[in-house]
Amino acid sequence: MALLDDVDTIRSVDPGNMYNLIFDFPEQLAQALKLSEGWNVRKNDFIDIKNIVVVGMGGSAIGGDLVRSLLLDRLQVPFQVCRNYRLPEFVDDETLVIVSSYSGNTEETLEALDDALARKAQIATITTGGMLEEIAKLNDLPIAYLPTGYPPRAALGYSFVPVLMLLEKIGLIKGAGKEIAATVKMLEKNREMYIEDVPTSDNPAKNLAERMLAKIPIIYTGPTVTDTVGVRWKGQFCENGKNLTFVNHFPEFNHNELVGWSDPIGPHTEHLMVIILHDGGDHPKIVRRMEIVKRIIEKHGIDVVDIQSSGDSVLERMFSLIQLGDFTSYYLAVVNDADPTPVEAIDTLKKALA
């Protein structure tokens, strides 16, 4: 019996029930949509918006990145994610600043919020509470309240949906609610192939996790639909799977990093693998580059895995890949004999900073 076909072994490494959080992600998206629809903000609350900045870190910021990727061809104003203590210099009273911190106590985010207040930006907040809630109440800022009890990386629906729905509520986009509802149905159907009872031979997430054993994955994506998805995969493999992972994007890395795949790669070969994330909306020249680069890398004996998105809409295609990556990260933790929930290195850093 393969390691990942033993359900008792799988469950033994997961006392924090990360599996359940990943499995229940479609329900989380649906709940986030319901909460966002009840968020008491109106179009007239935000006027003459010339640009948008989402402020956050880690799991709270990646929701903003996904919105940026999703709306690249739809949004009429510039959109940027800020992972810093200070906002970009262009932020002013015609900027919508969406401040997202799941804990409400992220130091970088709170300092950036002070910066936004000083610049008289138009601000909305997303949090479970903490100092962010206190500051928002003190300054009469809109607050989207999130359910507590999740590791931030397992609360992606709550960092993504409120940002997207806020933009719909204030009239910058249309149709987001319907897209989310359709994506929920797709994810509910797709997760059946990833569940713990499905054997490795028929389970794409288990199969990929087994191929990654004792390897450092390098994820390559296109520059649009899949760019943030690749970052999500990297983060999940590192945090859940306890497996160092890197990510880069076509075509940029073709102008620098590609040269690293030259002779001699030598002793590194057996420890590396490449995952290429594909999407039906990739530019034809990106597709061609992916084909050529795959051949270049395979000449060195490197395992290259092609992963294709699925779904009718851009949102469905993005989240089809996210779902596969999340399940894979879980099974990667199992093959690495690691509890997927703790993030001890981050906790150590926070204590040292404090």
Your description of this structure?
There is one protein chain. By secondary structure, the protein is an alpha/beta fold. It folds into 2 domains: 166 residues, Glucose-6-phosphate isomerase like protein, domain 1 (Rossmann fold); 139 residues, Glucose-6-phosphate isomerase like protein, domain 1 (Rossmann fold), CATH 3.40.50. It is 44% helix and 14% strand. It has 13 helices and 9 strands. The protein has a 5-stranded parallel beta sheet, sandwiched between helices. A 4-stranded parallel beta sheet has the order 7-6-8-9, sandwiched between helices. 45% of the residues are buried. The mean pLDDT is 95.
Structural class, please? alpha/beta
Tell me the count of domains.
2
Our estimate of the beta-strand percent is 5-15%
CATH topology of the largest domain: Rossmann fold
Low-confidence stretches: none
> So, CATH architecture of the largest domain?
3-Layer(aba) Sandwich
Distance between the termini: 47 Å
| Top-tier CATH class of the largest domain | Alpha Beta
- Helix/strand order, N-terminal first: HHHEHEEHEHEHHHEHEEHEHH
Mean pLDDT: 95
Tell me roughly what share of residues is in helical segments.
40-55%
DSSP summary: helix tally: 13
Strand order of the largest sheet: 2-1-3-4-5
Which geometry do the CA atoms define?
Answer: globular
Number of strands: 9
CATH superfamily of the largest domain: Glucose-6-phosphate isomerase like protein, domain 1
Described by strand count, sense and barrel closure, the largest sheet is: 5 strands, parallel
Radius of gyration based on Cα positions: 21 Å
